[in-house]
Specification:
This protein is an alpha+beta fold. 25% of the residues lie in helices and 25% in strands.
Length: 794
């Protein structure tokens, strides 16, 4: 089934008597509260007698810490505690995969903005003033900022004496992880090519730029533990890192999700959780921490900047012969998820194309630049930017239409990936390209009217820089492939506790998971699945916390698949238990209880023919049924460290874009007019949410195409623009019309046939915009973001 929309999609019903189930467009229950400013975010929390926490961060990127003087800070009235690494109660390091990140720097600092000391005070301004009084003496060290400085034989090591399991196969101590992929014989295949194109591409460091800064509240408990209320993406991963640093068993660190103001990967790593908890346990008082925007730029990981070197060949009839590439990802000062990003970048570097002969290498570096980790698209974004530019170069050299060239080489179900893994679910790459190309073009010269030029529709907008002079239109296309879920042998699972009972004369289901609602829409989808499986109208979504089993991270497009699958699985078990109760109570009254296929719909037990046998209220009476079960997707395996072969991914997602831009070639200003997307979503559980996710991902791709970049001084490794004044984001005035055309080609291995949707549109939107700007200007443009000076040569 397909849907096309430029706004709210039509409902897709299941024919159930229970409204609000799978396939219907449902409004978010927190939507109105958020747009009216009434929603309580983590930064809004309050506790009587709470203190305010503040971190002091390094002003240099690489240095030995000679001394720390906290005396003046401690003497300030209202200060309750000043802590350094020497005051930490237990483990001093944390990390998702490898514990190389200090809670507070000790010995030396490895990046600009690294936390060194902590203050707790009775007022946030007092805490800030006290932190400013802490005196730190540094002995600065040479900075490592790029591949050349990181891998030189005499390079300064960012981490001495590495103990992680990647160190043994890394060709240099400053290389976090290396993943080659070799399939066929690229060198031999290159001899068959009639044309060969090469390109060197640079992808800038992008920030997640969530609007709600890192924040949370830690409350010391009577049992010596701590209750932590925080905005995060993965409660149980946080828990496993926090407890050792506090010297507490996990059961004494009780975590509850607070309101999240966006995430996009930036909350997958620890930020203030340990800092606030250490202060709370030290002072015996609740401690709240809220980063300001400057701190936030240093308080979370970013998207890996990358250098990408590609070579493709093709025959005269347009078949790709081979591909060679090297991808260099800058992981910054600490590991975070760099090894997994390297795995993604390498395994998806070929794009959604059939290429039998490949020679691929991806590496992740340790540098003194800001730490990088998870962000929407996770390694596939950088690769897509490069391989799609290559597709346009090949098509141009062959004199072929760029869409037709892509379609000629497009993968489909049954294609073998460069890793040797077959694509065993729908892969409608050619169809997605056809759909975006077939859309009507937006009208030319939309700024013209009888009253003169409407500058809002022109490059430069209300700055009134042009009335149409020098404005040229360009159209560009791109398509991408993204894995869904955790890969490379990770034990990826989710847990759901489902309870059904009678409350006030009505059957009510409660869904309890630890899944983080970060804006992706789980708050509606979880209830939709429960309604569909249990046939009840009233569904309560319990707050996410660590009192239930892990739901995994809200990332990798996995939550509808994984936690949705867990909810479905637990609901099915609950349903069978309810039917057992019904058979026990009423089986003697109707033969259908023993022989028919029974369903729960509309608050009743019904046969598959629609005959009602009993109400759920009568079946349950005073009984409650509760089930907590885990759900796992089919297993994956690690990529071979020499050849890159292996069934590393569980599912793939595909999206294509067509960008229409208008460029003021004299001033180098760009106006994106339309950014149309076609995507296979497997099953639209909530079509309204599907559209929002695709449009949101598209907009983030637009941002990195033309404006978003964290700028790091290559000489000092210091961040030059840690503010939303200097780090530019697309506003509603920059965001074009985003028509969406979605397919529903079910993945037979997934619950309801769903396919992760949130990440794929972030891939192809960026290269589509770049392709359109190239078409308008004739420039090569091998770097993101494109700035005016790149277009004017100034």
């Amino acid at each position: 089934m397909a849907g096309t929309t430029t706004g709210i999609p039509a409902n897709v019903t299941q024919g159930s008597q229970t409204k609000g189930g799978v396939g219907e467009s449902m409004l978010r229950p927190d939507g109105t509260l958020k747009v009216t400013g009434e929603f309580a975010y983590s930064s809004d929390m309050w506790h009587e007698e709470m203190l305010w926490g503040q971190a002091l961060r390094s002003t240099v990127a690489h240095a030995e810490i000679v001394s720390i003087d906290t005396s003046e800070a401690l003497a300030l009235s209202g200060v309750y505690a000043v802590l350094t690494a020497d005051d930490l109660p237990a483990a001093k390091n944390y990390g998702m995969e490898y514990q190389d990140t200090p809670v507070l720097a000790y010995g030396k600092v490895r990046h600009h903005g690294e936390p060194i000391a902590l203050v707790a005070a009775d007022h946030p301004e007092t805490a800030r003033r006290a932190a400013a009084k802490i005196k730190i003496e540094y002995r600065e060290l040479p900075v490592i900022t790029d591949e050349a400085s990181a891998t030189a034989p005499d390079a300064v090591l960012v981490h001495e004496n590495r103990g992680d399991h990647h160190a043994g196969h890394a060709p240099h101590p400053n290389i976090v992880h290396r993943q080659p992929i070799i399939r066929g014989d690229a060198a031999e295949a290159a001899k068959r090519a009639d044309v060969i194109v090469k390109g060197e591409y640079t992808f800038g460091m992008q920030d997640q730029a969530f609007l709600g800064p890192e924040s949370g509240l830690a409350v010391p408990a009577e049992d010596g533990g701590v209750d932590l209320y925080v905005a995060t993406q993965w409660l149980h991963s946080d828990l496993k890192q926090i407890a050792p640093c506090l010297g507490l068993p996990e059961e004494k660190v009780r975590m509850t999700m607070a309101g999240v103001g966006g995430a996009f990967g930036g909350r997958e790593d620890i930020s203030m959780q340990i800092l606030a908890s250490v202060l709370a346990l030290r002072t015996g008082k609740p401690v709240k921490m809220v980063y300001n925007r400057y701190e936030s730029f240093f308080g979370h990981v970013h998207r890996h900047p990358a250098k990408l070197y590609y070579e493709h060949g093709a025959t005269k009839d347009g078949k790709i012969t081979h591909m060679k590439c090297k991808i260099v990802l800058d992981g910054g000062a600490y590991m975070s998820s760099t090894p997994s990003v390297v795995g993604n970048a390498s395994s998806l570097s070929v794009g959604p194309y059939v290429i039998d002969d490949v020679d691929i290498e991806a590496i992740g570096l340790y540098t003194n630049n800001p730490p990088c980790g998870a962000m929407r698209g996770f390694g596939a974004v950088q690769a897509c930017f490069a391989y799609e530019a290559q597709m346009d170069k090949l098509a141009a050299k062959l004199g072929m239409d760029p869409v037709e060239f892509r379609q000629k080489n497009a993968m489909e179900q049954g294609t073998i990936m460069p890793t040797g893994q077959p694509v065993d679910s729908p892969a409608p790459v050619a169809e997605l390209l056809r759909r975006v190309k077939a859309r009507p073009m937006p009208p030319e010269r939309q700024w013209e009217s009888s009253e003169g030029a409407d500058v809002r529709a022109l490059p430069g907008g209300l700055s009134n820089t042009t009335h149409g002079e020098g404005v040229v239109r360009g159209v560009g296309y791109a398509v991408g492939i993204k894995n869904v879920g955790f890969s490379e042998g990770f034990d990826d699972y989710s847990t759901a506790k489902i309870r059904i009972e009678v409350i006030n004369g009505e059957a009510v289901a409660t869904v309890h998971t630890a899944a983080a609602e970060v804006g992706q829409g789980g708050v509606t989808i979880h209830a939709q699945i429960a309604r569909t499986e249990l046939g009840v109208q009233q569904v309560t979504i319990a707050p996410a916390d660590t009192q239930v089993g892990s739901a995994g991270s809200t990332s990798a497009g996995r939550q509808t698949y994984m936690t949705g699958g867990a909810i479905k699985n637990s609901c099915e078990i609950v349903r069978e238990k309810v039917l057992e109760i019904g058979r026990r109570k009423f089986g003697s009254y109707h033969p259908a209880w023993a022989s028919a296929e029974l369903l729960l719909e509309g608050g009743k037990v019904v046969t598959d023919g629609g005959e009602a046998l009993a109400s759920l209220v009568d079946v349950l009476e005073d009984e409650a049924v509760e089930v907590e079960e885990e759900f796992r997707h089919r297993p994956t395996e690690a990529f071979d460290l020499r050849t890159g072969q292996g069934n590393g991914h569980v599912q793939y997602a595909f999206a294509a874009h067509r960008a229409v831009v208008e460029v003021d070639t004299e001033l180098g200003l760009v106006k994106v007019i339309e950014l149309a997307c076609a995507q296979d979503v497997g099953k639209a559980v909530n079509p309204l949410s599907v559209i929002g996710q695709i449009q949101g991902g598209t907009t983030q791709g637009l941002g990195v195409a033309v404006m978003e970049e964290i700028i790091v001084d290559p000489k000092t490794a210091k961040v030059k623009n840690p503010s939303f004044t200097d780090y530019l984001l697309p506003t509603i005035l920059d965001t074009p019309t985003i028509p969406v055309d979605y397919l529903e080609l079910a993945d037979p291995h997934a619950p309801y046939g769903v396919r992760g949707i949130g990440e794929a549109p972030t891939l192809s939107s960026t290269p589509a915009v770049l392709a359109a700007i190239r078409a308008a200007t004739g420039l090569e443009l091998n770097k993101t973001p494109v700035r005016p000076e790149h277009l004017t040569g100034t």
